[in-house]
Here is the input.
Amino acid sequence: MHAEPRLKSKIWAEALIRRARLQGAFAYLRHHGDDDAGIILVKTALMDGTALVWAPMRDEDFCLKWQVRSHEPQSEAEADTWIEQARTRDPDLWVIEIEDPKGRSFLLSEETMPLDQKHRI
Here is the structure.
């Protein structure tokens, strides 16, 4: 059993935003959490009124994995409500929003897969 080294949340968030922007998506920090250890949520807005919300989890080996909250895109209002509820429970939470009609989260190596295949976890 081994745990991956963990980057500070601030560095990780800035890198994800930069990666998304370099690939042509619009990305921004929606909520600034704890600089060192805040959990990061990622909302991918598909630019059609729907969105996906990604949350981190650890597998049995304590390796970081990303899991989409809903396997189908949900309305942006539903996604925003869920995010705000999570922020109420955890004030150290970070929220990054990515606007990308291709549905890319920039979290997974399968970014080139069609939207209906890449969310099967």
Q: What stands out?
A: Helices lie at 9-22, 76-89, 115-118. The longest helix spans residues 9-22. The domain at 9-118 is CATH 3.40.1530.20 (hypothetical protein tt1805). The longest strand covers residues 50-58.
